[in-house]
Amino acid sequence: EAQVTQNPRYLITVTGKKLTVTCSQNMNHEYMSWYRQDPGLGLRQIYYSMNVEVTDKGDVPEGYKVSRKEKRNFPLILESPSPNQTSLYFCASSSTPRNSGANVLTFGAGSRLTVL
Amino acid sequence: GQSLEQPSEVTAVEGAIVQINCTYQTSGFYGLSWYQQHDGGAPTFLSYNALDGLEETGRFSSFLSRSDSYGYLLLQELQMKDSASYFCAVSDPGGSYIPTFGRGTSLIVHP
């Protein structure tokens, strides 16, 4: 089944304790991205990657790191989490748009992170 | 940069038609997409417009006017299961085509 898999789905942690949210896709997609979702703010892009070893900042990258060493994986790293990073996080992937076609994102199920 | 505006909430009754508007400002434009998200779920793709006009997919249609930087999602024959959040999203070639999302519209369908 074509899917984007995120782990963990739920995590409660404490300020300053490094954590990684993993994301893996099995569709051979070039594009991958991370979003955070907060009430009233919609989906805000954190980082994105156009292909292996190519990453770039989105709208809210502060406090996050990413890497893209393999095409299928795009982990999100919080080196020193803070309470304002409490949020619902989504990983998504898509293939390169062709001929004005849609860049259709497939989302993971989400990871709900609480930082105390 | 990019910004998108859509209403925060829309209510309607079962069987009715509802339109969710989206206006956008972008430095570049590739296409406008719509996503649906039920409470507790992941967003899922609904429709896409790259060119002006109406695209129809069953009960859902999406419209785009590039000259007006405006689009809308039209939902017909509303059902209770259509209660969800709806996001418009713009793809910008300058932003690697990965969509930037609006804040979402919460659609509440009443019996």
SSE diagram, text form:
The complex is a heterodimer of chains A (116) and B (111).
Chain A: E1 4-7, E2 10-13, E3 19-25, E4 31-38, E5 42-51, E6 54-57, E7 65-66, E8 76-78, E9 87-94, E10 106-107, E11 111-115
Parallel strand pairs in A: 2-11
Antiparallel strand pairs in A: 1-3, 3-8, 4-5, 4-9, 5-6, 7-8, 9-10, 9-11
Chain B: E1 2-5, E2 9-13, E3 18-26, E4 31-37, E5 44-49, E6 53-57, E7 60-65, E8 70-75, E9 84-91, E10 100-101, E11 105-110
Parallel strand pairs in B: 2-11
Antiparallel strand pairs in B: 1-3, 3-8, 4-5, 4-9, 6-7, 7-8, 9-10, 9-11
Structural descriptors:
heterodimer, A: 4-stranded antiparallel β-sheet, 0% helix, 49% strand, B: 111 residues, mainly beta
Describe the fold and architecture.
- The complex is a heterodimer of chains A (116) and B (111).
- Chain A has 116 residues and is an all-beta fold.
- Chain A has strands at 4-7, 10-13, 19-25, 31-38, 42-51, 54-57, 65-66, 76-78, 87-94, 106-107, 111-115.
- In chain A, strands 2, 4, 5, 6, 9, 10 and 11 form a seven-stranded mixed β-sheet that branches. In chain A, strands 1-3-8-7 form a four-stranded antiparallel β-sheet, with no helix packed on it.
- In chain A, β4 and β5 form a beta hairpin.
- Chain A is globular and about 45 Å long.
- The model of chain A has no long low-confidence stretch (mean pLDDT 93).
- Chain B is mostly beta strands.
- Helices cover 0% and strands 58% of the residues of chain B.
- Chain B has strands at residues 2-5, 9-13, 18-26, 31-37, 44-49, 53-57, 60-65, 70-75, 84-91, 100-101, 105-110.
- In chain B, strands 2, 4, 5, 9, 10 and 11 form a six-stranded mixed β-sheet that branches. Chain B has a five-stranded antiparallel β-sheet with strand order 1-3-8-7-6, with no helix packed on it.
- The radius of gyration of chain B is 13 Å and the shape is globular.
- The N and C termini of chain B lie far apart (41 Å).
- The model of chain B has no long low-confidence stretch (mean pLDDT 92).
- The interface between A and B is medium-sized, with 28 and 24 residues.
